[in-house]
């Protein structure tokens, strides 16, 4: 691509210095950071503007030069951009909804396994020189996740990755989906639910010990509570799934 491209706050996304922005275009200008009063002057003549969690108001977008055809949010959420102002200017806005789906899914499953085996407590015991978990019977609570029911509220990119991993661990899946497009039969057997209140719908269907995982991404945030976080992961233990100890 040879469209003039400007990256406004590269330091936000290139924290380890390994990104090669030259792959974006033959004509790319990269700034580590950009103040609001610098933005308009830096994008003059540009066709593509790349940002990362950088607030760009409607007033600013309405002043964008006519050369700008695309604003790329280098992440999942785009609630930092005024979409209506971009629409009025004829500027397309895109994001990267699945760039970290696997990593976040791995983290969610890691947290489930961490809690199911009381890993933090075991690590604290080792740190103080206590090896009772090895020399005696296991001294901490432990629950096998196989055959447990994993309730997933939000079966989008991340939720579907979690489903794949959980099924490999022989967990049973109950998933609430926000859109019929998210219902993928390749994950069968999955019990799918669709109702106005995802939490209540999940809870009414569950009669065994469960792990309930709520993955809320920034698209849901825009529609609902306008959270700033890219991802919020809740792991909630219901009934007597795991006795939680501090």
Which descriptors would you attach to this protein?
single chain, 246 residues, alpha/beta, 5-stranded parallel sheet, 19% strand, elongated
Sum this structure up briefly.
31% of the residues lie in helices and 19% in strands.
| Helix and strand composition category | alpha/beta
Number of strands: 10
Shape: elongated
Rg is 23 Å
What is the distance, rounded to the nearest whole angstrom, between the alpha carbons of the first and last residues? 54 Å
How do the SSEs run, as a string of H and E?
A: EHEHEHEHEHHHEHEEHEHE
**How are strands sequenced across the largest beta sheet?**
2-1-3-4-5
Put simply, the count of helices is 10
In which range does the helix fraction lie? Answer: 25-40%
Average pLDDT over all residues: 77
- Tell me the major beta sheet: 5 strands, parallel
Strand coverage percent: 15-25%
Q: Regions with pLDDT < 50 over 5+ consecutive residues?
A: 182-188, 195-200, 206-210, 215-246
Description:
This protein is α/β, with parallel strands linked by helices and 246 residues long. It is elongated and about 70 Å long. The longest helix has 16 residues. The chain contains 10 helices and 10 strands. The chain has a 5-stranded parallel β-sheet, covered by helices on one side. The C terminus is likely disordered.
List the helices and strands and how they pair.
Layout: E1 5-7, H1 10-13, E2 28-30, H2 36-42, E3 48-51, H3 58-61, E4 70-73, H4 83-89, E5 92-94, H5 101-116, H6 119-127, H7 132-135, E6 149-153, H8 157-168, E7 172-176, E8 190-193, H9 198-205, E9 210-217, H10 218-223, E10 231-238
């Amino acid at each position: 691509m040879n469209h003039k491209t400007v990256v406004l706050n590269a330091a936000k996304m290139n924290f380890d210095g390994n990104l090669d922005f030259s792959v974006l275009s033959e004509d790319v200008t990269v700034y580590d950071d950009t103040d609001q009063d610098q933005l308009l002057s830096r994008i003059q003549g540009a066709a593509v503007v790349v940002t990362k969690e950088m607030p760009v108001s409607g007033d600013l977008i309405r002043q964008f030069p006519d050369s700008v055809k695309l604003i790329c949010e280098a992440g999942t959420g785009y609630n930092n951009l005024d979409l209506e102002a971009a629409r009025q200017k004829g500027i397309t806005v895109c994001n990267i909804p699945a760039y970290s789906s696997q990593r976040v899914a791995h983290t969610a499953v890691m947290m489930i396994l961490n809690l199911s085996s009381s890993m933090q407590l075991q690590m604290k015991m080792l740190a103080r020189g206590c090896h009772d978990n090895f020399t005696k019977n296991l001294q901490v609570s432990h629950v096998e996740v196989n055959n447990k029911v994993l309730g997933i509220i939000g079966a989008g990119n991340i939720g579907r990755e979690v489903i794949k991993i959980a099924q490999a661990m022989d967990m049973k899946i109950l998933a609430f989906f926000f859109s019929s497009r998210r219902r993928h039969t390749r994950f069968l057997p999955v019990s799918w639910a669709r109702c106005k209140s995802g939490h209540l719908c999940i809870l009414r269907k569950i009669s065994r010990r469960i792990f309930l995982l709520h993955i809320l991404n920034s698209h849901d945030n825009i529609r609902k509570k306008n959270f700033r976080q890219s991802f919020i992961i809740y792991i909630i233990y219901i009934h007597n799934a795991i006795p939680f100890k501090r």
